[in-house]
Input
Amino acid sequence: MPSALWSLESLPPVRRAEMRGWVLLAVGSLAVAGTLALLLGLSRTPKVQDWLPWGPHFFYRALVTHVVLSFEVWFLAALGALSAMAAPPGVWGDRLGRLGLVLGAAGVVLLLIPALADQGEPSLNNYVPVVGHKLFYVGLGVHAIGVALASVRLLPLLWRRPRVCAAYGIACGALIYLAALICFGLAWALIPAGTDPDLFNERVFWGGGHVLQLLNTLILMVAWQSLSERQYGSGPLPAALANACFAALALFAAASPLIYALGGDVLGLDHRQIFTRLLWVGLPLPPLVMGLGVAWRLISAPRDWRSPAFLALALSLFVFAVGGFAGFFLGVADTRTPSHYHAVIGGVQLGLMGMVLAVMLPLLGQTAGQGRAVRVQFHLYGWGQLVHALGFFLAGAAGVPRKTTGIDQGLDTLWKKVSMGVVGMGTGLAVLGGVIFVWMALVRLLRPTVAQRAESGHE
Amino acid sequence: MNSNARAAASALLLATILLLAGWLAGRTGADILPAESYAANPIDFVTRTEAMIAASQVGRTAEGMPVVRPPPGDVYVRVRRWEFSPALELAPGQTYRLHLLSEDVVHSAAIGDAEVLLEPNTVKVVTLKAPATGRVRIQCGEYCGLGHTKMIGSIEAVP
Output
């Protein structure tokens, strides 16, 4: 199966329009998540908080919505965009994609309402935190169905032989996503009525939430494949091995719904722990194999530090690898856990940012160029995430509990205070990098294409 | 090169299938704390706990909870959003049987690297040997609300 580059000509205009919509939804969600993060900060600022029209629970509602937009919607809308690139041509595929996009966007609008209207009990459960309000759940469901519609059209690629190697990876991503949805649905059906809402939210999103981590990893691997093709003209591994890496993650996801039959009571401890072990057993090998291929490429081929594709490859590999390594030293509930997942997810974010700037924008007739802003963005975000993760790791090793703020953090030693200061410094750098990325991507997504500007005489 | 790539791909898929089979079959519960359980009336349990506190308190509090130093043997701990009560001071090297009862929703007690789920109305009894010195970390490992991450108990070995 030959590996081939994505090209502007390979995407018909209808698919380009759909892809642009998904990328706008993904990057727009990051922009809204960033605004919410700003409001979060203001809601904790003395004096300023008195001027805000929201109650004391706004912090948690905004936190939940921020996480869902920057963690779930960003990745799932990215999967939508990837599906528009990879799906086999056809009228039905186009219709499913358009309908999926409309539902995906409508769902995001709905789930924003409870936070802004200061309604519903926030729940900081794992993976998909929620605001306990009907509109939030409906929004989440509508968005999920939208992405599912876009994903379904990719399934035939699993048994066909797509020309572009990454297309097979994206089809595996669609399968993983659908498996996660089945897990959510099974959990919802199996949890007894009348279960405490906190426990309900935790367990309904537990299994599928773990499966979504396989999807995030696969998105990174698709980004590595595509960025390597963009930078070096071929993927980091021979196509057969790359496809085996994609398939290996998909196999684990496809088997995951069986746990609802084999893994005991959905509210039991066995059930919870078997999904934890999914990430230990099923996740490391495929990105390790592909990561080694990327590392070999980076070492053996010329290094172009001005190229967005090269920067995204190098930094995403480094940050992801550091985060993965930190995963072997987790505490029970201290900040070493966020240290691990911030670095791992930071690696995925860097890969996806590279995918947007170096692969998707050119497919839409835009270019991010090789200017200073692009380089600074990758460095700020990448090194910022590393510093952030390092601070969390040091603080966690000293016993600072996760998901706490202010006095609850118990910063009673200089070591803890310095560590959390390092976290803040890393956050600042990463936020700057994120803001530059969102700005660059949105400006290019909203302006006329290079060809249109040339036609109208602006270039 | 092509045949090498195919061989590597086959090896990777074979390894994945073996790992997958191991995962699906591996429901050993190695991280689950061994525990006995019995049904209990919460009012009786609170009475027993209060009696233990009255008999063994050392006159101090830790984070608002009375500190008790019970004799080796049965120790009663009330569990609720978001506390384990009372705070315990244990004699190094001695063995204790912690009776844990959740009074409101499902919690868990993660002690060291293992964990036991605590459902309302069912007491879980776990055996704990106090270390020579220092703290034994006990905290809730099952999400139970906004204060979940602060739900950390106090058990300390004091000579």
